[in-house]
User: What shape does this take?
Amino acid sequence: MRASHLVPAGLVLVALGAIGAAAQLSHPATAPAAAASPAATRQVPVTSAARACPPAPGGGTVPVALLASGTGAAGTGQKGQVELTALPPAGLPVRPGQGSGPVSAQSPGMLSLLTLPAAKKNTQAAQGWSVAGGGSMAQGMEAELTQSSGLASVRCAEPGSDLWFLGPGQLNGGSQVQLDLMNVDSTAASVDVDVINDGGQVQAGNDNGITVPPHQTVTESLSSAAHGSSVLAIEVHTSIGRVAADVSAESHGTTSWLPGTASPSTRLVIPGVPPSGSTAGLFVADPGTSTAKVTVTAITPQGQIRPFGSQSVELPGQSASYVALSPLGGTTAALQITSNVPVVAAVLVPGNGPGVLTSATAPISEQAIVAGNTSGGGIAASVVLSAPGAAARVRLTEIAPASKGSTSVTASQVVAVKAGRTLAALVMAPKGAKHGSAFAVVITPLAGSGPVYAARVETQDHSTVVSIIPAASALTTIGLRPVRDSYDAISG
Assistant: This one.
């Protein structure tokens, strides 16, 4: 059980990118439609989505905030709803309806609060929560665990079959490392956990063939793998079913979260690396058997620089390493990682406890959402945008509850990012927002924009980094390939 957490109130924010105001402001770049071709991919609305929020600290009630579109999914006639359900620790009975029940979609951009029932005594530390969206509420759904102010600490995880995390070992402040596995499905999942540290692959307790029962949570300690190491790379993969996973690292009673990182690749981009008063560090791991030769390029507002000059970072197969970064010119940047073999990577920025992590992510497709943002009282929020290739144009839309009535207010700005550059855009609650309320940010690449990577960064007094959320795509539609008269259509 955790002694203390950075997340004192366990708030969850759920944002839907197809909110009326934001969805009508702009549309992402799309390839020209092959109108005359019957083989063209057909775009259909997303009608179901699932996330799992990790166990919240304490034993009381858990507040939840919902931002809903309130419009039916085009062509489906479905009214949206979100259902929040407890995922108790494995071994405890699962009670039907153990949650808040369905929450109907409301007015476009409406931010509402509800309270989840308290977990039973001594079970809160191991109880996750399922967030299931249906109809229009599934479109662009995003969920985040937050502090009491509404400031996001970690994104609630999307279920998958192969998930990666990278973060500090004991020597970098991760003395106690905990893995939470959550099953939102109706069938059991079988999970294997592979851990790599400075010394190579390690055993971390009973990490093979872990059964995660339906609608339950299993918690595993990885602290033994963290002992004496500077970095941990964690792969969670399933042989049966799928799971959502979150990893936390505790140091001196303060816990930070390890955001999921992109799967191993020969090219990675880590957005939102802010300037800091002390040295940040790069975590990199090579899960294969061949030696990796890693090149690091910093994408800054002034252009691209090589923190390590012409030298590359060499990493033996099945090992992980921590490399201190130069100040990068004292400016916000993204790191582009290239390697001869697939690697995983993340950056640790000095902050409270072990620090704040930002991880490799994919370029934004259609839109991305960060639901839990705050400003004022010395706290400032910015969206850090990087365009490693062609120039990018992005619309940033802020949404918050109105100070009067039961409506929401919005504001937007369009920012241009030069090719090969990074830009930090300040965001804040729109004019007319309820005083002290959190606000959501929708990040939408505009038509003709080059690939863009983003992260939301929050700082205290312009110096201390308190939160980084790498932006992930929040789709409102998906493409369906045409069905052909071939067995390939079935096996594909």
Remarks:
- The longest strand covers residues 333-349.
- The domain at 162-359 is CATH 2.60.290.11 (Hypothetical Protein Tm1070; Chain: A).
- The chain has three helices and 37 strands.
- Residues 20-25 form the longest helix (6 residues).
